[in-house]
Amino acid sequence: MSDVDPLVRYANNRKIWLNLRDAFPHPYTRHDAREFIRGVRERSPETTFAIDV
């Protein structure tokens, strides 16, 4: 899961967190990232989009 570290780095930013849904955790941990990625991979069809910085 090479996306875990970048996801944690950007998702753990408070300024970003303030603009997301209430269910989005802060602080954002590696566990949160792994669970999010696992959940996205299990969905069908895959429709989760992200901005790659």
Characterise this structure:
By secondary structure, this protein is mainly alpha-helical. It has one domain (4-42). 47% of the residues lie in helices and 0% in strands. Helix 1 packs across helix 3. The longest helix has 13 residues, at 30-42. The model has no long low-confidence stretch (mean pLDDT 86).
Summarize the structure.
By secondary structure, the chain is mostly helical. It contains 3 helices and no strands. 47% of the residues lie in helices and 0% in strands.
Explain the layout of strands and helices.
Elements: H1 4-11, H2 14-17, H3 30-42
Spell out the key features of this protein.
about 55 residues, mainly alpha, 3 helices, globular
Shape: globular
The overall pLDDT average reads 86
Q: How many structural domains in the coordinates? A: 1
Multimeric status of the protein: single chain
